[in-house]
Amino acid sequence: MKTIPYLCIILVLLFSCEDDNDNNEIKDRPAKVYNTLDEEIDEAASGTKIKLKSQYFAELNANEDLVKDGLILINDKEIHIEEADQDYVLFELTVFDLIDPEELSILFRFRNEIWRLCDPCLWYLPTVRGVVYAGEGDEFDLPGKLTIDTDGNLYVIDQQTEHDLIKKVDLSGSVSIFAGGSGEFGRLVGIDINESENLLYIADATAQQVKSIDITSPTTINIIAGDGTAGIIDGPAASASFNFGTEPLTQLTSSGINGQGLTLDDEGNIYVGNKIPETFDEFNVRKISVSGEVTTVPGSHVIPTIDSDEIRIPAGLTYHDGSIYYTGGLSSLFQGIVELNSGSSIDLAGDVTFEDMLDGTGSAAAFSYPADMDYHDGYLYVVDGSNGALRRVTLSGETITLAGVGHFDTPTWCGCERTPPATGFYYLRIGSPASIKMDQVSGVVAKTNQEIYVSDFGYKLIWKITIR
């Protein structure tokens, strides 16, 4: 006799579980997207107030408190409803970690129900923002190439009349002399960091040597490679010779930045840009192995025949997955990015151009004295020297401008009254990179794809560019 009540209880539980499962299914409940002016929209940036209108909200708002019990779901983020009345709910679009415009789908959760309001229906437009990060107190003379440690501290080459310095910018933006205060260096033209060894590596063009600096004891400086003479001799590090370009940053557009830049690969090998002595148009890239052997990177030494279009000048280098990328150039010669891999050399982006700034893929992109480059997570970040611009390049050569006004609108080259730097922001796809006005840019390092630092020797500043 007791079995009948137990069976009833079990059946009740089973049916209640089925009801819960039905309630958790996503139901299509179409809604339209508006702004607070009741204009229908299909794109928005973070911080935008969004109104979602649907007849289904009218039914719920009549009897329920959606501000308390409802949630908006976008890309796995929960967004609280700020206001709900009649046929709408209102919320503020949050920040997403996106560096390109992307279509979003919007869901609504109320207790055990989930509604699909639109799939997809709203383009998220990342905000590109440029602010002055360091240098407003005249702490720099000519800030150049720079690198970053895992804590976020920057190490910046600051060129002087005779003995260059390395300055440290901490997380608060405070600037201090890190190394070189006793005249240990000449003209510095490249820098990178190996934190596993607690070392900074620099290319000293006056000494024609590559040196290391102990990060924990910056007065401890050692020669890694180079016998101190200008040359292109490969071999053991102590007897090898280099010929780094000694041009200061201010010579960017007169004779260019020739044979400069330094980067490390994942194993700790060092690569540097090098100029062939007593030539105008011959350059190469050299490798210093962890075992102390100096070699010329295969495919990097191009000997132009008659056509000056063949000249490729390294000014800044970076490394990724077996490829060395370098950027550089002079007006009316090739200006852009070269990729070296397995003994071959290809032009990834750029062409023979005058002072121009064009977005596009491959040779459709145009640069003006690109001075330095850094790689992070699928992208190359290039500081486009006299354009005063930060460019982003994919590994397939697609180039866009993230910030900057272009050569003839920079304070140095506009032929107009010098204007102060313009911090600002815009929305990718619908805004203008010229909202962020830099001058002559010379160094770049990417902390993430959302946070990039740029040195600007025209304004004597360090910029922070964010994309969110």
Automatic annotation (TrEMBL):
InterPro entries: 6-blade_b-propeller_TolB-like
The protein, known as: NHL repeat-containing protein
Source organism, top-level taxon: Bacteria
Organism (species): Marinigracilibium pacificum
